Amino acid sequence: MDSTPVVRRLRKGNVELGLVLFPPLNDGETSPSPETLRAVLAAGSSLAGADIVVGLSPWGFQAERSALPRLDGTFDVLLGAGAGAPFPLDVTPFAPGVIWSRADVDGRHVIELEINLPADTGSPRPHEWLHDIDVRAREWPLTDDIPADQRVFEALAR
Questions:
Q1: What is the pLDDT of residues 38-92, one digit of tens each?
Q2: Average pLDDT over residues 89-101
Q3: Residue 71 CB contacts under 8 Å (≥ 6 apart), including other chains
Q4: pTM for the whole thing?
Q5: CB-based burial of residue 3 (10 Å sphere; 0-12 exposed, 13-18 middle, 19+ buried)?
Q6: Which value, to the nearest 10 degrees, does the dihedral of the CA atoms of residues 54, 59, 60, 62 take?
Q7: Secondary structure of the chain as H, E, C letters
Q8: Interacting residues of 107 by C-beta distance below 8 A, sequence separation 6+
Q9: Quick one: pLDDT at residue 74?
């Protein structure tokens, strides 16, 4: 199994987004190995200068929670998936610089995060996100009433 994180930079207008797709954990692992965590942190650090750095994790709740304090200062957002509790938004006291959101395992909702970037993105300290002040989340249930959006299909095709 490849343990190399996938890294991408995207630009929309004046905002540069860094994305890191975390490698899957080995069978039976409930937390990332030190090597995997180092690789993920190095990948996130390689995106220095991006306005916001997002980690995409398939690790599951327990592994993400155990890694969260280490991700603080490198990642701004952790979009989690896999086994464990779903929730639209959490900013924990032990990692206040990371917005954590976990998808429903059954795929019944889409989570929309609204993030207001801090004015001073060059600050040496990680920004401490404030729930409902500079980050908000909404869950949209997936039903036939939601119209298809061609822009979403195009973004997913990249």
A1: 999 999 999 988 999 999 999 999 999 999 999 999 999 999 998 898 899 999 9
A2: 92
A3: 40, 41, 44, 55, 78, 95, 98
A4: 0.84
A5: middle
A6: -100
A7: CCCCCEEEEEEECCEEEEEEECCCCCCCCCCCCHHHHHHHHHHHHCCCCCCEEEEEECCCHHHHHHHHHHHECCECEEEECCCCCCEEEEEECCEEEEEEEECCCCCCEEEEEEECCCCCCCCCCCCCCCECCCEEEEEEECCCCCCCCHHHHHHHHC
A8: 142
A9: 95
Question: How far apart (Å, rounded) are the C-alpha atoms in residues 79 and 85?
Answer: 13
The one-letter code for the residue type at 91 is V
